[in-house]
Amino acid sequence: MTGIGAVLDLRAIRVAESAVDRLVAVHRCADVLEEIGAVERGYRWAMLERERLMSTWLGEGVAIPHGVDGSRALVRRDSLAVLRFPGGVPWDGGLVTVCVAIAVRGEGHLSVLSALAGILLDPRRALALRSTADPADILAMLNPEVAA
Question: Would residue 109 show up in a list of annotated catalytic residues for this protein?
């Protein structure tokens, strides 16, 4: 995986989701990854298993649901899905408003985490990620080449 935006399709950005808890939110993330053809159906169970083993909540209102290491064979192509939950989702003691679901075959999640860290460490960019209601803005934020 090259840049974070290289694997983010506009169809995988949803800005008006709702979920009563983190498990429902992870299911919604898996639904989107399946809808865009990025993963096999079994990947959702790997995402839920990861969440059972260790919370994917990063802080700053962001979680990064992804599968356990053994689930890489269920990934058809490296992809991201970004889901905004404007009402927030209770998540391991915090409140998540953005999920960046990650489906990668190799070690590509490291570049995703690095790019997200850059956004989350900048309060202005972190607020923009949590609050924008325009999928194109999210795509541009995560893929600066698109905005140029």
Answer: no
